[in-house]
Prior knowledge:
Elements: H1 19-26, H2 33-96, H3 101-112, H4 114-128, H5 135-157, H6 164-187, H7 189-219, H8 225-232, H9 237-241, H10 258-279, H11 311-319
EC number: 1.10.3.11
Pfam family, one: AOX
GO molecular function, one term: ubiquinol:oxygen oxidoreductase activity
Amino acid sequence: xxxxxxxxxxxxxxxxxxxxxxxxxxxxxxxxxxxxxxxxxxxxxxxxxxxxxxxxxxxxxxxxxxxxxxxxxxxxxxxxxxxxxxxxxxxxxxxxxxxxxxxxxxxxxxxxxxxxxxxxxxxxxxxxxxxxxxxxxxxxxxxxxxxxxxxxxxxxxxxxxxxxxxxxxxxxxxxxxxxxxxxxxxxxxxxxxxxxxxxxxxxxxxxxxxxxxxxxxxxxxxxxxxxxxxxxxxxxxxxxxxxxxxxxxxxxxxxxxxxxxxxxxxxxxxxxxxxxxxxxxxxxxxxxxxxxxxxxxxxxxxxxxxxxxxxxxxxxxxxxxxxxx
Length: 325
């Protein structure tokens, strides 16, 4: 059996202890200095770590809160500016085209397809510099412009462009709108998408009011040939492509008369609103025909994942060294 270490505990000479008491005290195990100090040291270290974590938490929370508040204010400012611009345009159109519906629709459709040209122009520029690689955005925006083009062709067939003043106004607004959207999209894609959503909402509301007002009359008029071909004939891939909120082939509208045409156009505008809403969350847009994202192509080569939210972010990413795994 092992021996038990004992410690002699000194007492003042004035204190007298009995022999039995001295034996008991003599048999107490000795507590080494290491065993006495380790628990205290551990507690001290733990307390220091906890204190550091609390200080870090206190330092980080105001920064995160400030960042979130700043972004919320930016969004509010962007949306307020967009709503104001939309209301100005609506008042101009109301003053000029109060009772001239087809001419108003012609102007609207000439303007409505412009932002998709602008989006693609900026995205092609980003792609040329190697800042961006997202094919879904180009596919969807082209399909949206293709849809708006056929709305425009329908309005031209209905005589909406018969007056030179309407053509002049629509074309000059479109030029200004294009460059404005390019600048807006380069600075804040979120703001540009929201503005386009506002325009599409107005288009939906305009067509809905017209259908309610002229519904019975429209049911007695034939559908334009261009509308029949676009909605019912040929390859409908692009028709499905711009409707990102639904699966392909799930919407096949009928075209029996002019009423059906305007109902289809109104519903198209609603789909544009949904797509523009989705685009405001960066990286959220997906083509209805896209397969789940993969990091390699069919040959096994890695796919480029370059991405940016605006020209400032693109330039920052281009000068930032790429981290290698």
